[in-house]
Amino acid sequence: MHALIIVDIQYDFLPGGALAVADGDTVIPIINAIQGGYDLVVATQDWHPAGHRSFASAHPGSRLFETIDLDGLEQVLWPDHCVQGTAGARLSDHLDTQHIEAIFRKGTDPDIDSYSGFFDNGRRKRTGLAGYLHNRGITAVSVCGLAADYCVYFTAMDSLQLGFETRILEDAVQAIDASAYAEKRMTFVSQGGQLVGR
Ligand code: VGL
Ligand code: ZN
Fold first, then answer.
1. Which parts of the chain are beta strand (E)?
2. In this structure, which ligand is nearest to the CA of 154?
3. Is 46 in the pocket of ligand 1 (CB under 6 A)?
4. Residue having the nearest C-alpha atom to atom 8 of ligand 1
5. pLDDT over 90 percentage in the chain
6. What is the pLDDT at residue 198?
7. Which of 54, 64, 103, 151 has most ligand 1 atoms within 8 Å of its beta carbon, as the pocket-test mutant?
8. What is the pTM of this model?
9. pLDDT averaged over every residue in the chain
10. pLDDT above 80 for 152
11. In the CATH scheme, what is the homologous superfamily, with its name and number, of domain 2-49+86-196?
């Protein structure tokens, strides 16, 4: 049984959004076209409380996109994005949601970021996604969405570590930083991950 995980197709990651990924909107029609081919489709949604500590605005004197030490973890300081209940946090209306059986929200703890759909960045808490996939008899996972170098990559790496046969659908991802993604995709392959497309 093969699941598709659609990562963070939210207005703040789309052109015009607070943390817009260049060409992020180009993945949506591709994702819509492939959803019907999977045994299960789930989505993730970045869902931060206002004042989240991954936001530069929570660290007076800091610069946007600077990396700091946050309670022992490296943390990039982002613009405020995907704040719970705001328009920017909504899944795009252009995303076909009829196949999506469950949506896993992440980044809800104010003190720790969560790129992966499975765990927060410190692996302190699970979202429940792994248990859900196991309960549904899933053995293979394909990951698509935004952004390739953050939430897609970390979701795919955790999926591999959890024992799922894991693919990144490269026609259906876009990166915040393409050169950072070029390195990360090779790490994913070196751990046994598969790249599909492109
Ligand atoms: C993401 C940075 C911060 C992502 C989420 O969805 O890739 N990136 N929060
Ligand atoms: Zn975020």
1. 2-7, 40-46, 67-70, 73-76, 100-106, 140-146, 165-174, 194-196
2. 1
3. yes
4. 150
5. 99
6. 73
7. 151
8. 0.98
9. 98
10. yes
11. Isochorismatase-like (3.40.50.850)
